[in-house]
Amino acid sequence: MVVKKRCLLWDWTNSSGPGNPGVPWAMDQCNFNGPISSVSNWNTWVPPELRGRAPYRPMVHLEAQLSGQDWNNVWNSDQPIVQYFNEPDKNGISPQTAADAWYRQMVPLREQRGKKLVGPAISSDENGKTWLADFMGRIHDQPPDFLGLHYYGTDGNACIQYLKEMHSKYPQPIVVSEIASIDRNVGSVYNFTVQLANFMDETDWIFEYGFFGCMRNLADGFVSPDAQLMRPDGSFTDLMQKLQWDQPIAPPS
């Protein structure tokens, strides 16, 4: 039986738009009958090339998505799960501001539209932990349905320990909406990805996770180039093929 927990992080530039031809055809390479559970593009609009082949995860990325067309997209979405805030601890959003918007807009989204909510996806450093504890204390009577986390690092065991620590502190199932190795050694990147994918597939309190990222160009100099899931021409890397086809993923021989 296939365990479907792997969210495809599909960069918005893969979709066609004004001045950006994109590579929408590349989604036809995806195996939606395997471990891929959903698709996210860090936005509120569905990639047209998805064509209903998997659930979409709209995201209230930052405060700008709480108004205008973005909020209309979220409110009127027919998708069951909405993600709230992407690394607010690094984007100047205070726990109080996030809690105020949570009660004002996200709680009604759950109560009136029936959505399940992923809490703010914080970074895994001490500042992120402190931010999350403050936020969760402010919304204790309306907690999220899922705990949102990110993890970037080089040590798979340390990542597993972090996930266990957060699970022991908060009871919600976990959505690791971004995870990747930042190691510059290709073997280490592969080992990290294999170890974490297999661990999260086997762990019942992990609801979903997304390896960063399916994009043609490096987002920045932080994530390892060897962790890329897409080449500049839109074709998939070997690591992406493993993530969309193999379960469990075999360790290196």
Give a brief outline of the structure.
32% of the residues lie in helices and 15% in strands.
Helix content range: 25-40%
Query: In percent terms, what proportion of residues is strand?
Result: 15-25%
Distance N to C terminus = 25 Å
* Number of DSSP-assigned strands: 8
Summing up helix and strand content along with how strands pair, one would put the structural category as alpha/beta
Chain-averaged pLDDT: 97
Uncertain runs are none
- The helix tally amounts to 6
Query: Largest beta sheet, briefly?
Result: 3 strands, parallel
Overall morphology: globular
Order of helices and strands: EEEHEHEHEHEHEH
Spatially, the strands of the biggest sheet line up as 3-4-5
Q: How much is the radius of gyration in Å? A: 17 Å
